[in-house]
Amino acid sequence: MIRPGLRLVEQVMGTAISLDLADDLPPPRLRELAGDVFAWLREVDARFSTYRADSEVCRFDRGEVLLSEASADLRVVLERCAELWGATDGFFDVYVTGRLDPSGYVKGWAAQVASDRLVAAGAPNHCLNAGGDVRVRGHSASGRPWRIGVRHPWDGSSACLVLTGTDLAVATSGVYERGQHVLDPRRGAPATGLRSVTVVGPDLGVADAYATAAVAMGMAGIGWLDRLPGHLHAVITDDARCLHSTRLPLLTG
Amino acid sequence: MADQNVPPRRLRDDRGWDGRQHPTPDGYRDHGTSDPYGPSGHQSNPPYPDAPPAPAGPYPQYAPAAPGSAHRGPQWVGPDGLGRPARAATATTGYGLPNLDDDDDPGRRAGRRRALAALGGTAAVVAGGAVLAMTPQVRGLFGGDAPVGDATGTTATDGTPARPGGQQPSTALELPQETAQSDRRSDEVDGRYSGTAGQAVRKQSADLDTVSGATATSTAYRQSLQAALDRAR
User: Fold this and answer.
1) B187 to chain A: which residues are within 8 Å by CB?
2) Is A6-244 a domain of CATH 3.10.520.10?
3) Which residues, in sequence order, are CB contacts of A189 under 8 Å at separation 6+?
């Protein structure tokens, strides 16, 4: 039996973006929707990448673009990043490396915007995975709520938790994939203590920023996540303990 | 700067319990009835007409201030300037914490205590029996297990003494042992999601739609479970 919908993978933003459209729409329409999504993500990459010297972010960082001349998207992103800097007590810091690097928010934000646009365009059942940050809506092509595995921190071929839901933004930050790359902005040193932090919430960009901030906090991040309103979490510590919200939508049975 | 408007702390405020109750529960002195900050119905007269006068304690700052006398020491400074002199609290019969040691009339107290003990024991037996009789499902109905906040569940280690964190790859993490369901789930996860990559793909592609993880480079993606799921379609 051929499932309805369309599944595509594309390398954008230096990582793989997987799109799963589960709506039973005509194939040309699905390809058009998917094309819009990837076009948007490529556009975001061209404007927000810190690896491209001609991107808007880099030009803004060098002072070649004033804030008043920046695009509306860049201003929105900078404003949200400033809010998140305050909300995370300074642990989510786009200037932690000394240069402007909003990538920790941009990837989740771009995926969230793409998902919102898909809903507005009449595709309310989809799953968008932007390099490990997942936004799911509705149901999968098999008609059940989406099932999102959380990657096992020590074994990339297995999942250690399985979440399920019809409207979730699931963002995971960890130090296992690219080494100790999350810096504690207060000490300027790589953060230790938490190996993987998954935050579940309504907005993927915010969830991604919260997860990154919690990793930067280290063990103190567990208590901080506990008091975070409107978000659920799952934490795996360096000594392989797993802690999670009691209301986390785990797949059972 | 607004914090400078609070009255300064009194002497000995940072000490532990010194055997003497504070004159007021909040540790501040009472204000007169005309004071805008004092409780309007809060009379500083002793509530009992026959109460003995307040004993002169060893703390001179608690001694009743003579009316009109120039006060020394800290004063309340409100928005209108210096406030009225804080009236001295009556030490023992004032507004401090209630004195629970009614040493007079010992017979009555003992009787009351016995009655309370008997009553409490009965209540404990009844409540204990009720708790024992409740199944987890029934207990769930009472809401006793409902999380108040976004509490982190209890933890389960994955062989901590045997394997220090990050030293060796682990096959699977145990789930927190909160409920019987979590326990069962833990076995399930172990059985279904461990093994070689090929098995994992075959088993998981039917169950998982996607995988959330730390951002992988393009190279790392090729070995990831997400890539396996993408290929399986």
Assistant:
1) none
2) yes
3) A183
Q: How many domains is chain B built from?
A: 2
Spatial CB neighbours of A146, under 8 Å, sequence gap ≥ 6: A127, A136, A138, A139, A140, A164, A165, A166, A168, B209, B210
pLDDT tens digit string along A223-238? 999 989 899 999 998 8
Q: Is residue B14 part of a domain?
A: yes
Domain coverage including residue B213: 180-232
State both tokens at B2.
């607004």
Higher-confidence position of A133 and A183: A133
Domain boundary among B97, B124, B156: B97
Question: In Å, how far from its chain's centre is CA A208?
Answer: 5
Domain boundaries, chain A: 6-244
| B56-69 per-position pLDDT tens digit | 445 544 444 444 44
**Sign of the torsion formed by the C-alpha atoms of B119, B124, B129 and B130:** positive
B-chain residues near A131 (CB < 8 A): 215-216, 221
- Which has the closest alpha carbon to A229: A210, A249, A212? A210
- Is residue B123 situated within a structural domain? no
**B78 vs B194, which has greater pLDDT?**
B78
Q: Would you say residue B164 lies in a domain?
A: no
Arithmetic mean of pLDDT over chain A: 91
Chain A residue numbers touching B171 (CB-CB < 8 A): 155, 158
Report the pLDDT averaged over residues A151-161. Answer: 84
Condensed to tens digits (0 to 9), the pLDDT of residues B7-31 reads 666 665 565 555 555 555 554 555 5
The residues facing B78 across adjacent strands are B81
Note whether A159 contacts B160, CB cutoff 8 Å: no
CB A162 within 8 A of CB B202: no
ipTM: 0.89
User: Are B171 and A196 in contact (CB < 8 Å)?
Assistant: no
- For B201, name the nearest residue in chain A, comparing CA atoms only: A157
Task: Evaluate whether residue B134 is within a structural domain.
Answer: no
Q: Which residues of A92-115 are buried (b: 16+ CB within 10 A; e: fewer)?
A: bbbebeeebbbbbbbbbbbbbbbb
